[in-house]
């Protein structure tokens, strides 16, 4: 990265090991890192930037009586993006083998399910079945699902409405409802601990070595 990005050329592995953390820009190793990216000028033809005030725009789809909860999608620590690489790693796949929905324990009482039970999330565009996980870090009225599970592709439910200015799809917020049960997600080429099974490894030994 240092060879192709001049603004981080001064951030070396040795400096990171010694100083712990560095921020860019840091073009030379003798430079101190800068907390503020642009201090004297901006990378424009006249060195000046234009700032435009922005108003908050409400979501295109809000919860209602029929779809009372909010679906939030995002990444998961152990699995990256679509999981096509990370879910082939035996340790990572053993840590998160199945698609899960993070739901506050109080919200699990409404559909009448317990942590680990199969649950169906439905929006106006489709439905996905996966396993419920009690998560007190999730806000009440919201359910979080990572988009790395091909067998429970959560973007089948999300709203494709575009921001009128940035043209960014509203994949992170839509109205959904939950119900107990459903069809268990089918895993094919990867996921579900298959990487460990193919290697005939004990997941507990593998995970212990990973953390050691």
Plain-language structure description:
- The chain is an alpha/beta fold and 212 residues long.
- The protein has two domains: 1-47, no CATH class; 69-211, Barwin-like endoglucanases, CATH 2.40.40.20.
- Helix content is 15%, strand content 17%.
- It is built from five helices and six strands; from the N terminus they run H-E-H-E-H-E-E-E-E-H-H.
- The protein has helices at residues 13-19, 90-95, 105-108, 194-199, 203-211; strands at residues 69-74, 100-103, 118-123, 126-134, 142-146, 174-180.
- It has a six-stranded mixed barrel.
- The longest helix has 9 residues, at 203-211.
- It is globular.
- Residues 203-212 have low confidence and may be disordered.
Question: Can I get a quick summary?
Answer:
By secondary structure, this protein is an alpha/beta fold. It has helices spanning 13-19, 90-95, 105-108, 194-199, 203-211, and strands at residues 69-74, 100-103, 118-123, 126-134, 142-146, 174-180.
- N-to-C SSE string, H for helix and E for strand: HEHEHEEEEHH
What is the CATH architecture annotation of the largest domain? Beta Barrel
Shape estimate: globular
Would you give the CATH topology of the largest domain? Answer: Barwin-like endoglucanases
User: What structural class do the secondary elements suggest?
Assistant: alpha/beta
| Tally of DSSP β-strands | 6
Stretches where pLDDT is under 50 for at least 5 consecutive residues are 203-212
Distance between the termini: 29 Å
Mean pLDDT over the residues? 86
Q: Identify the CATH class of the largest domain.
A: Mainly Beta
How many domains? 2
What is the CA-based Rg, rounded?
22 Å
| Secondary structure tally, helices | 5
- Amount of beta strand: 15-25%
């Amino acid at each position: 990265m240092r060879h192709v990005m001049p603004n981080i050329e001064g951030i070396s592995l040795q400096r990171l090991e010694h100083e712990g953390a560095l921020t860019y820009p840091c073009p030379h190793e003798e430079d101190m890192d800068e907390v503020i990216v642009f201090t004297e000028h901006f990378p424009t033809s006249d060195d000046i930037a234009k700032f435009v005030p922005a108003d908050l725009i409400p979501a295109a789809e809000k919860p209602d009586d029929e779809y009372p909860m909010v679906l939030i999608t995002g990444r998961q620590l152990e699995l990256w993006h679509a999981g096509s690489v990370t879910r082939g790693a035996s340790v990572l796949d053993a840590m998160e083998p199945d698609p899960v929905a993070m739901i506050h324990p109080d919200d699990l009482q409404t559909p009448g399910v317990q942590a680990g039970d199969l649950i169906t999330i439905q929006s106006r565009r489709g439905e996905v079945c996966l396993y419920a996980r009690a998560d007190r870090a999730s806000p009440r009225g919201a359910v979080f699902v990572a988009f790395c599970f091909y067998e429970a592709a959560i973007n089948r439910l999300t709203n494709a409405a575009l921001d009128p200015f940035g043209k960014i799809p509203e994949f992170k917020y839509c109205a959904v409802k939950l119900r107990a049960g459903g069809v268990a997600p089918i895993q094919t080429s990867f996921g579900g601990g298959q990487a460990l099974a193919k290697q005939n490894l004990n997941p507990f030994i593998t995970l212990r070595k990973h953390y050691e």
